[in-house]
Amino acid sequence: MQEISKGKIVGVNGNMLTVEFDEHVIQNEVAYAILGETRLKSEVIRIRGKRADLQVFEDAQGLKEGDMVEFTSELLSVELGPGLLTMVFDGLQNPLNDLAEQHGFFLKRGVYLPPLDYAKIWEFTPISKVGDKVRAGDWMGHVPEGIFKHYIMAPFNLHGEWEVVEIRPAGGCNSRETIARLKNSRGDERRVTMTQNWPVKVPIPCYRRKLLSDETMSMQLRIIDTFFPVAVGGTFCTPGPFGAGKTVLQHTMSRNAEADIVIVAACGERAGEVVEILREFPHLPDPRTGKTLIDRSIIVCNTSSMPVAAREASVYTAVTLAEYYRQMGLNCLLLADSTSRWAQALREMSGRLEEIPGDEAFPAYLESRIASFYERAGLVELNSGERGSVTIGGAVSPAGGNFEEPVTQATLKMVGAFLGLSRERSDARRYPAIQPLDSWSHYKSLVNAKELKIARNVLRRGSEVSQMMKVVGEEGTHIDDFELYLKSEFLDYVYLQQNTFDEVDQGCSPERQRYMFGKIVNILETKFRFNNKDVARRFFLELRQICIDWNYSPFKSPKFEELEAKIDAKVKELHHA
Ligand SMILES: Nc1ncnc2c1ncn2[C@@H]1O[C@H](COP(=O)(O)OP(=O)(O)OP(=O)(O)O)[C@@H](O)[C@H]1O
Ligand SMILES: [Mg+2]
After folding, report:
1. Ligand nearest to the CA of 249
2. Residue 121 φ then ψ, to 5°
3. From ligand 1's centre to the CA of 240, what distance in Å?
4. Long-range contacts of 541-550 (CB under 8 A, 24+ apart)
5. With a 6 A CB cut-off, is 242 part of the ligand 1 pocket?
6. Is the CB of 304 under 6 A from ligand 1?
């Protein structure tokens, strides 16, 4: 075995250590700074000659010049295997589920817990047979994990083809027992268990190709699926000012998205918020399965009270977990809240490294880091021909809600959809507060393009009339323009806005959206004969209320049909034949 490299601290700057080492050290390898009885996990982030800069993932207080550092020659990795679902991890994959509330859900420094329960027995069913040839990522067997078949895969770091020389028969075993033995043509042997490690900063490469996705991943949110859709394997961002509803929106998505697995990366949220997630999330009902949402979720969280380095690690941990389940042919949705706090972690570390700062003191490589994160999304064809996907959505919280800042701008260059939340809309309590005029998406909508164009046109022109009315007043506005304005408000209230706290309205199925949208567009296209503006206003107010009630009734229920008839009758009343 290789001699473990050692080093000595020659400089301490907050969480950043400069270490002089004697042997060999590699970029991004894990090291432990020794503080008495405690070993503090760190990562090598820069090497210059015989000196390495390390970021400590914990409070580095007490470390001083002359203290020892042990290198591990291993990259920062996560452990992958059955049992990841339902878990709540911190950025270093310490499980937080069982930590008593009195500990504030956070670990004492220097304490690292195993991410998985190795004693648990899993019912293994083999797929491979002795004599089969396998490559990295091939499905060799499976165990049930909740409602999923969790595939046990040939290690992702295998090179070339290996022969199965032994495979475990069906039956229960724990995740550390041998599932199979492999041999390659050179005679090397590998033992396969249910778990394997993978370095978080390296994308899992075991697939044939990335596919261009044209399938919409419904979030069951009308403004998104219809107007600014997200594709399966796509990327999107939800920037918004402080308190505009980014987190509530992500929660709604995690509950309603048509994804198999949801991974939530809560990085740098306020401590109180994380505790809230930990308390609430496990009990949220899952509309897709009738069970709880946590059964098909993993949460990776850090708070702003934890050192920045752990925050930086958490998004990589989360995306690696998503890629792992993608390898099983599943659609995974990764929601990161918020990537701004992750970027701030980069900035802070870059500052300590005394790198030349770029825009707003962010490091020059900010853009490439953000890019390499979103690039890990995608719909892939696995080597078996099956498909799996990772869809990534990032909340961005720019200071002052200014979208011109570097993190938002770098993100916009990468993502396929931009769902910008606005202060104006959240102040008016028009939720979700996505601004319909500035947002965009390159992906395919659930509804047909022609109807969509009509609706967009009404929104745009209605907004123009509204601006004009602020100058000339209602009296100075022509009745036709006024009607247009009322129609755009109508569309906003009954379609764009959606009540996340109403049991029915919180999730609007694709089928229901198509059905509803057709009807709404019909109304937008109808030329009404209003005698005066008061009549027009009253008409649309009444129609709006019926439509909102309609939104609150289960699809195709008697109540739904009844209200639909009421809407039709109402429209006919004033329809200009
Ligand atoms: N869809 C919604 N329906 C009703 N109220 C909402 C909705 N979204 C947000 N709110 C209200 O706005 C508040 C702030 O929302 P949220 O925490 O999601 O904002 P945020 O953008 O994540 O804020 P921060 O920038 O602090 O992270 C919520 O506590 C809630 O009162
Ligand atoms: Mg938030």
Report:
1. 1
2. -95, 130
3. 10
4. 542/570, 543/490, 543/567, 543/570, 543/571, 544/489, 544/490, 544/493, 544/494, 546/570, 547/490, 547/493, 547/494, 547/520, 548/493, 548/494, 550/494
5. yes
6. no
Out of 221, 247, 424, mutate this one to test ligand 1's pocket (max ligand atoms within 8 Å of CB): namely: 247
Helix, strand, or coil here: 43?
Answer: strand
Cα of 421 vs centre of ligand 1, distance in Å, is: 11
CA of 244 to the centre of ligand 2 (A): 8
How far apart are the C-alpha atoms of 467 and 478, rounded to whole Å?
Answer: 14
Cα(245) to centroid(ligand 1), Å: 3
Smallest-distance ligand from the CA of 244: 1
Could you tell me which residues are beta bridge partners of residue 77? 199
430: Cβ below 6 Å to ligand 1?
Answer: no
Q: Is 431 in the pocket of ligand 1 (CB under 6 A)?
A: yes
Distance 517 CA to ligand 1 centre (A): 27
Given the CA of residue 252, which atom of ligand 1 is nearest to it?
Answer: 1
577 residues of the chain, pLDDT tens digit each: 456 789 999 999 988 999 999 888 999 999 999 999 999 999 999 999 999 999 998 888 999 999 999 999 999 999 999 999 999 888 889 888 766 554 555 667 778 888 999 999 999 999 999 999 999 999 999 999 999 999 999 999 999 999 999 999 999 999 999 999 999 999 999 999 999 999 999 999 999 999 998 899 999 999 999 999 999 999 999 999 999 999 999 989 999 999 999 999 987 666 666 667 767 777 788 877 888 888 899 999 876 666 777 788 899 999 999 999 999 999 999 999 888 888 888 898 888 888 899 899 999 999 999 999 999 999 999 999 999 999 999 999 998 889 999 999 999 999 999 999 999 999 999 999 999 999 999 999 999 999 999 999 999 999 999 999 999 999 999 999 999 999 999 999 999 999 999 999 999 999 999 999 999 999 999 988 898 999 999 999 999 999 999 999 999 999 999 999 999 999 988 765 4
The domains found in the chain, sorted by start residue, are 6-75 (2.40.10.170), 117-194 (2.40.50.100), 209-441 (3.40.50.300), 449-574 (1.10.1140.10)
For residue 339, the cross-strand partners are none
- CA 354, distance to chain mean position in Å, is 31
Q: Is 500 in the pocket of ligand 1 (CB under 6 A)?
A: yes
pTM (two decimals)? 0.94
Give the whole-angstrom CA distance, residue 509 versus residue 225.
10
